[in-house]
Amino acid sequence: MSRPRLAIGTFGDIGVVRTPGGRHTARARYRDWDGKTRLVEATADASKAATQALKQKLTSRALFQPSSTALSPDSPFGELVAYWLEDLDLEDRLSRTTRLLYERNMRTLVLPAFENLTLREIGVARCDHFLKQMAKKSYSRARQARLVLRLALALAVRHEVLPRNPVDSVSRLHRPPHTPDALTPVEVNAIRLAIAAWEAGRAVSGPKPDGQLGVIVEVMLGTSARIGEVLAIRRRDIDITSATPSIRIAGTIVSHKGEATSRQDHPKTAKSRRTVAIPTFTAEAVRKRLVCVNNPSLDALLFTTREGNPLTTNSVRRQLRHVLKLAGITGVTPHMFRRTVATVINEQAGVDLAAELLGHTNTKITIQHYIRRNEMVNPATAELLDRVLAKEGS
């Protein structure tokens, strides 16, 4: 009679034989994931030890189902990184900016710590220690490193090279206390005055300012848009003739290494694409700027270089920093205007409207990163206490 066929990933009866050297060899038939049945052996000094060693060997063998990839649990981590980057390109779901960011973070933050390890050597304890050590230096870098490490190892799990993803079991990273930095109305007006003085030529050496910086700031204050989104605004995105003037946020400016700066036809996220009603001060600034835009095309950018090319976000940041430094103002970044808008809207109308204006998918992001907490408790408490606890006869 023929032996009954084993199910894939299972083994038959274990037999133990004594070798001429006095040791013991345990053997069993194992049906591999390719459907072929093979004899698997393990040798030890005692029969029981040989049987136990064979069972461990069979259990380990059952964890890994071969796939089309050439990777194995004994492959170096660097080979997984290359395979992961190829897979990202094959899926083609990420924006160019995000794809380059993932590769940079993997190569600069993660690979130096894991490049000499095989995949089976990367366990929970090692990943946990690595991320905690990085978090001591920078929470942000630790978070970015965890993301790309988890994504790469998740690919190894999906392609059945590893049985589980060790990053899924590491300790949670704890964000250090942080209060979003927003500007007060007094500070906003001081910035406006500094830019106006510079654009009037009273603190300038070199080419005369073209007046764009002040308008850029007014648009950021009136829309809450990111600096790249503001620089990507076109004629077709602007409506200043309706009863409610508005600007559509529908793209962003990107600058890839070795390539010319260009307009990307979508903002950071899907929800970031939105139409924003603008306040009077923004509408007035945009009207004045449109007079200076010589290109009549609807696709003409509102803000450009003297040659008509898109402005880079870095050049605007540098210019803002330089202008404010001349006025003795430091520490202001374009993103602070976005936080300022979020804080104002939250205080006047609540966090839901603030999140909607910023294009956030939920209010948690708005609260954590954009709204400066108001330390002033509602003054109604004083009236309530006076009413109940006032001194008699007073």
* Helix proportion range: 40-55%
Q: Average pLDDT value?
A: 87
Beta strand count = 8
Helix-strand sequence:
EEEHHHHHHHHEEEEEHHHHHH
CATH topology name of the largest domain:
hpI Integrase, Chain A
Structural class: mainly alpha
Morphology call: elongated
Radius of gyration: 31 Å
At CATH level 2, the architecture of the largest domain is: Orthogonal Bundle
What count of structural domains? 3
Please indicate the percent range of residues in DSSP E strands (runs of 2 or more): 5-15%
> Could you describe the largest sheet, including whether it forms a barrel?
3 strands, antiparallel
State the helix count: 14
- Strand line-up of the largest beta sheet: 1-2-3
CATH class of the largest domain: Mainly Alpha
* Contiguous uncertain segments of 5+ residues: none
CATH superfamily of the largest domain: Intergrase catalytic core
Terminus-to-terminus distance: 108 Å
Q: Brief overview, please?
A:
47% of the residues lie in helices and 9% in strands. With 394 residues, it is mostly helical.
How would you characterize this protein structure?
Residues 75-157 form the Core-binding (CB) domain. Keywords: DNA integration, DNA recombination, DNA-binding. InterPro entries: CB, DNA_brk_join_enz, Integrase-like_cat_sf, Integrase_catalytic, Integrase_recombinase_N, Integrase_SAM-like_N, Tyrosine_recombinase_XerCD. The protein has helices spanning 47-63, 77-91, 96-114, 124-137, 139-158, 185-199, 212-223, 227-231, 280-292, 313-326, 334-349, 351-358, 363-369, 380-389; strands spanning 15-18, 24-31, 37-44, 238-239, 246-249, 252-254, 262-264, 274-277. By secondary structure, it is mainly alpha-helical. It has three domains: 15-63; 77-169, Tyrosine recombinase, N-terminal domain (DNA polymerase, domain 1); 185-369, Intergrase catalytic core (hpI Integrase, Chain A, Orthogonal Bundle), CATH 1.10.443. The strands form three sheets. Strands 1-2-3 form a three-stranded antiparallel sheet. A hairpin with a 5-residue loop joins strand 2 and strand 3 (37-44). Helix 2 packs across helix 5 (139-158), helix 6 crosses helix 10 and helix 11 runs antiparallel to helix 12. The longest helix is centred in the middle third of the chain and has 20 residues, at 139-158. The mean pLDDT is 87.
